Amino acid sequence: MKSGRTVVAVTVSLALVYLAGGCAGLQRGPSDEELLGELLRGWQAALDEGNVDNLMSLYSKDYMAEDGTDYEGLADRMEQIVPLLKEYGVEISTADAEIEIERSSATLGPIAFDSSFGSRTMSIEAAKESDGVWRITGTTVEQ
Fold first, then answer.
1. What end-to-end distance do the CA atoms of the chain give, in Å?
2. Which of 19, 98, 107, 142 is the most buried (most CB within 10 A)?
3. Strand pairing of 98-102 and 105-115?
4. pLDDT tens-place string over residues 4-62
């Protein structure tokens, strides 16, 4: 009978150690919504800093804009556009952006661009790629 008590005592002890350790084995990583929020903040920070390399690291190699611009074309375009954002005082706001997730794709927006030339909004399409990372796959500028 003593060995039965020992098994129970060891089992209870292990359970208490497991629970006291914060259930490390059950802890989950950030949610998709949190990861997409990080993507959006990283995108805005890269634009604010004028860092095209960081910006392009957030885009999928499968990127395709509504006008047919692919990843390489976007990289060339960003090299020209990003420096102009500061020069012309363009302010970018993601404050009103909402994240809508449907399986492994998401839409983030609206994102506001304001300058002395006027205002525009856009949204970002993102996809969770095979490596589990959310990347930008498209953009839509509202007319």
1. 79
2. 107
3. antiparallel
4. 555 444 444 444 444 444 445 556 889 999 999 999 999 999 999 999 999 999 999 99
109 contacts 122 by C-beta, under 8 angstroms: yes
pLDDT confidence band for 3 (50 / 70 / 90): low
For 91, the token pair is 């302010």
Residue 93: strand pairing partners: 112
- Domains by residue range for the chain, with CATH: 30-141 (3.10.450.50)
> Alpha-carbon distance 68 to 65, whole Å?
5
SS (H, E, C) the chain: CHHHHHHHHHHHHHHHHHHHCCCHHHCCCCCHHHHHHHHHHHHHHHHHHCCHHHHHCCECCCCECCCCCEHHHHHHHHHHHHHHHHHCCCEEECCCCEEEEECCEEEEEEEEEEECCEEEEEEEEEEECCCCCEEEEEEEECC
How much is the pLDDT for 22?
Answer: 47
Tell me how many degrees the CA angle 124-130-131 measures, rounded to the nearest 5.
95
